[in-house]
Amino acid sequence: xGVLIVLTVLWLFSSVKADSKAIxxxxxxxxxxTPLLLEASEFLAEDSQEKFWxxxxxxxxIGSSDHHGTDYSYYHAILEAAFQFLSPLQQNLLKxxxxxxxxxxxxxxxxxIAADEPPPEGCNSFFSVHGKTTCESDTLETxxxxxxxxxxxLLFKGDHRYPSSNPESPVVIFYSEIGSEEFSNxxxxxxxxxxxxxxxxxxxxxxxxxxxxxxxxxxxGVELAIKSTEYKAKDDTQVKGTxxxxxVIGENDPIDEVQGFFFGKLRDLHPDLEGQLKELRKHxxxxxxxxxxxxxxxxxxxxxxxxxxxxxxxxxxxxxxMKDLSQNFPTKARAITKTAVSSALRTExxxxxxxxxxxxxxxxxxxxxxxxxxxxxxDTQDIFSLFDVLRxxxxxxxxxxxxxxxxxxxxxxxxxxxxxSEADYAVDIRSPAISWINNLEVDSRYNSWPSSLQExxxxxxxxxxxxxxxxxxxxxxxxxxxxxxxxELINVAEMxxxxxxxxxxxxxxxxxxxxxxxxxxxxxxAVLRAYNYVAREVDDYHAFQTLTQIYNxxxxxxxxxVEHVVSVLEKKYPYVKVNSILGIDSAYDQNRKEARGYYExxxxxxxxxxxxxxxxxEREQLDPDELETITMHKILETTTxxxxxxxxxxxxxxxxxxxxxxNQPNVVPRINSRILTxxxxxxxxxxxxxxxxxxxxxxxxxxxxxxTAAVANSMNYLTKKGMSxxxxxxxxxxxxxxxxxxxxxxxxSGRQLLYDAIKHQKSSNNVRISMINNPxxxxxxxxxxxxxxxxxxxxxxxxxxAKNFITKMAKExxxxxxxxxxxxxxxxxxxxxxxxxxxxxxxxxxDFILSHAVYCRDVLKLKKGQRAVISNGRIIGPLExxxxxxxxxxxxxxxxxxxxxxxxxKSHIQQLRVEEDVASDLVMKVDALLSAQPKGDARIEYxxxxxxxxxxxxxxxxxETYFDVVAVVDPVTREAQRLAPLLLVLAQxxxxxxxxxxxxxxxxxxxxxxxxxxxxxxxxxxxxxxxSFAKGPIAKFLDMPQSPxxxxxxxxxESWMVESVRTPYDLDNIYLEEVDSIVAAEYELEYLLLxxxxxxxxxxxxxxxxxxxxGTSANPVIVDTIVMANLGYFQLKANPGAWILRLRKGxxxxxxxxxxxxxxxxxxxxxxxxxxDRLRGQYQxxxxxxxxxxxxxxxxxxxxxxxxxxLLSDGTSENESGFWDSFRWGFTGGQKTEEVKQEKDxxxxxxxxxxxxxxxxxxxxxxxxVLKNTKTPVKFWFLKNYLSPxxxxxxxxxxxxxxxxxxxxxxxxxxxxxxxxxxxRIIWGYKILFLDVLFPLVVDKFLxxxxxxxxxxxxxxxxxxxxxxxxxxxxxxxxSRREMDGYRFWKSxxxxxxxxxxxxxxxxxxxxxxxxxxxxxxDLPNNMIHQVPIKSLPQEWLWCETWCDDASKKRxxxxxxxxxxxxxxxxxxxxxxxxxxxxxxxQEIKQLQLRFQKEKETGTLYKEKTEEPSREGPQKREEL
Length: 1520
Fold this sequence. Notes:
Blueprint: H1 2-12, E1 22-33, H2 36-47, H3 49-58, H4 71-83, H5 88-100, H6 104-115, E2 126-129, E3 132-134, H7 137-146, E4 160-161, E5 171-176, H8 181-195, E6 200-205, E7 211-216, E8 220-226, E9 257-258, E10 261-262, H9 263-269, H10 274-289, H11 296-299, H12 302-312, H13 318-327, H14 329-336, H15 343-360, E11 368-371, E12 374-376, H16 383-402, H17 407-414, E13 426-427, E14 435-436, E15 474-479, H18 486-498, E16 504-509, H19 523-537, H20 540-552, H21 562-572, H22 578-582, H23 592-602, E17 609-612, E18 615-616, H24 624-647, H25 657-662, E19 667-668, H26 673-676, H27 696-700, H28 704-713, E20 718-719, E21 737-743, H29 748-761, E22 767-773, H30 785-796, H31 799-810, H32 812-819, H33 834-842, H34 847-858, E23 867-871, E24 874-879, H35 887-911, H36 916-931, E25 951-954, E26 963-969, H37 974-989, E27 992-998, E28 1011-1016, E29 1035-1037, E30 1045-1051, E31 1056-1062, E32 1070-1071, E33 1078-1096, E34 1107-1111, E35 1119-1122, E36 1129-1134, E37 1137-1143, H38 1147-1151, E38 1152-1154, E39 1158-1164, E40 1167-1169, E41 1171-1173, E42 1178-1180, ...
């Protein structure tokens, strides 16, 4: 029966003949395709270099893709080799990564680095030895002999370094292609040399003969927006379509449903009817695709109706439906208006919206995505940074899974916020060593102040310092009284006190504490004793007054003397013998020893030190004026902190506020920068095995995590309680801090470190200690006595006996006695089973020391004998010889671990009910895993959203690790168009618990989505039917409606600059009715953008006008840029490779010097990574955080003799900096050096912008009108971003014909400037915002001529017109055509008052741009009128029929074809009617185009000569 109905329908429609129209978009790279094998190796290298080298070994048999029957078998051979090193989840991520081609840029960067060497002639692979290259093994030997005479090469962070046994040996960089035969042979030779300690082997990818095809990129969106046709802006020139490979268009979508017919199923059921089904499908598509506008009442509920439609579909298809509806909304809207919305859905959405607003800050209609509680910002984070998040989360989750933590406990542990505190660290100020000179809570002078903390919440004016009787702000001055800076600091303290600033002030006097020095000899001791005397006789406040009197006697810059103290005491206390206060028998030495003790113990650095609530100020902040300002700033900052705490009820009313401050997590007992540094290195403790260090042969073949597991398995710990689980089972005792002490315990420094650790342990029950031996000398039975004794005790004794024995062994006397031949029995301690100990001690088995030594070398990367401390897997070290690391440091380390991670993890592990030793091990391992994560934002908790009626829910697969993914979305927004396809891909990649909450808007008054959208993303590489790689991925818009006018837009990651390279169609005006079948738009990734912010490190200000150049060592200047004044922003165009950032020759280089200048834009995943900095031998990092504003912060500093020089030689005054300044000086001069003066007078620079074929046609005619009327040579500048491939192809031919110069310039809209979504607005913005950075600095004046203008005079006259010092000249709007008065919006309202009688300027910048949030309509030149001088040009420079009367036309020097809001006349008709010469120009160019086309087809086309001087310089400068 079904067949009959279908056949009848087919017969009914057999007369219908309509072709389906489609639009496809692809984006490729400029560089050639890179082998997937190499990309897979980089994926593994990201995990560890060890995995990289293992994969290299495993994949040697794979060869290149030519060695395989099909691409498919090559791909699967790669996966097979890689999968043995990856978990199932990582395997999926690898497939996704290969589909994204995210490491292709990394391989290409190596290609560029190799090209810079350069490779020797005729070599498929080659070596570079300290700058000399060869591909012969014999020559390699010779180069190695002379290597030491040449400097070592610069190595990059992405380089693959083979583990070296001798870091001092020469560096051999091997450039080759993994998998090739040549690679295998050389690789084996290099490994044997490296193992023998003869070389350091570094590998870089190099493909001698790449496949000549580009890489197809994905991870971007394509928008097909419906254009307003109010003014007709479509060209009438006919375009011939090109042949398109139609196999790219498949109709095999999973839901191929059109008007209720499921064509996927029908094709399966009736394969014989394929042709007719195709016809029926076409007809139905045509009939549904016409988009009649909807009435306002139909629009109101579209958001809820779309949600209802999505939620009504089967759960496994809900995302597919959401993708289909949001991405094709304009054609689906009418059908959706018929959907009913249940009250349950509406109520639940509205209920959830209260929570969305309160907890996530989301309004109705907003979207958000959270993965495991991490917020993924879809505006700033691209698919590559999202991939990093997935990979990182997978690492942690799989680590926790391997440690046996699963399901909900896994997600609870994951959500622990254990990031090291970002706040500056503070020391504890609750010390009796501090002499406090006032106390806000008890001193009578503060009696009138309110004492309640609630006062903090009382509103005041901003910046007012609140006077409250609580010690909220405590300042401690740690000073040497005899130092010359002390007087100034005491004055500052006095100023705070006398002005009633709410500060409690204390002093610590650090003086000579040896007992035979008294106050009659030493000024410092004299000041201390005088202070103590007055404090005891009267009080601390008076003692401080005495101090100020003493220091008032000291001249500026001099030191205090004993006589100053004596004279003040004699005057104030004439009845007391000064000698009894200051002399040898003085009783006034309180705090003398304690003060020095406190100062040394806190480790706060050189004197003087000022602490604010325990936090030390930096040295440069101690200048008296600076100190005053910074203290006031700190008081306001701390007030905010307390306001929050009081508001949230975190400070009980009866709690001492100083106690509260000192209990904050950033308060530590001692400040040791090695411990507190943000750069932290952790061991991977997640592996597990059953191996131990006492089997050396087995130990050596384990990988790094395996070796770490074996070391951990072999550990026996010392604990304070003297109980280990071997004796008494005490489940309540988990010790959250584990120290592994690494050192040579047969040397004094190793023993001292161990001794300090054990001493610290006596005061703490949270700590376990064990040891790793790192012998300094060759290992022998004789020289490892102490190490063997310690090991034997740990293996055989109870924890208590072992601890007492090891403490004895760690003391200096023991080792000396043993070395002198004493018997080990002399050191026996009570409770020790000596015979058992002796048996192990005297055993000749040295495996444990051998294993430990290999572990220190290969995993901890220590030299022989170096010391380190490993605390919960964090490696602190290597410690320098003689570097102090004492009890206090262990105390600090313990404190930090407990506060940030230890206690939180311990409480979770306790709930798992595992036994004590295992539990302590788990805390250590989980801590190392979680703390090793890069610092990210805190995870957001979201428990309470209702999900019965308004959410899509997908449950995870049971028993596997899963990601917790929450999305909040309004299904009729641009975010939904991107989010739905992204979630569909994620569902195929990862196991996830997904909830998608609808966040609908009600009462819509406009069509919510006016565009079609495709997000190009595939979870895995796809193949064609003959098993070769499919061409793609590409965006496909199938079955599109034919009546609307579309404009095509790409939505790419921030750092990509793309351009349209091949299509005959006008992508700005796509009208499918006039297209044969397919519009194929091909784009190319032209540049990867390097953007950043530049600051002068002396002033902290951006050095506006500073110029950078980017290049390679072989070609130093490839692109240049200029630093904007706002934010010091700059951007440079690069491609994958290593680039050197330099200052441009000229004033920039003369005045400034640059810091940290070499970067690898290997734009790994198309973003920057760091490169080595030879000067400091360290890595110069680029920000990896995709949310951070800059990718590259560049510091510069003026040279000493140039401090007063200004880069901009016209020396603008200081108070004029601001947004407009960032470009106002760009036109009125700037550089005046010789380099800049060339060509200045004999060329006219004309800038213009066009987009779409019609405006490009006008642009060519404008150029012709200029050339016909101007005698002086002309150079045209065009914004490249929006030009069509047709125009770019034709312009060199036209330039040759009419003998003019041209240059294409481009600039990417900065990410910190409000992002526009409408193409037209972006183009308007480009016309003014980036003028100073678009042009090289050789251009000091240019004319802007709009594309639709016709010039009727010599433009030299305009170029030479004086602007009287103003940076801009604009023509005012005509107001002579009276019938248009009703359309002159600037004559009333906002504009009338803003212009205040000035003229409204045209031409062209009537720019509508959301630049400032308080202006909805933004007209730049007229808004700038108050900030930037504008010179009005004579009216005849711009005549436009809309606004100017006919009488003035004969004087017109240029005619502008501006739109007429009254008649809405199409541009082409207006051009022919208004400008008589327009048609002649049009015909002349058409003839030229025909000639060009003919020559192109016959192959006789004039080829542009790059050596031609007129164009070569600047034009080549633009291309990388």
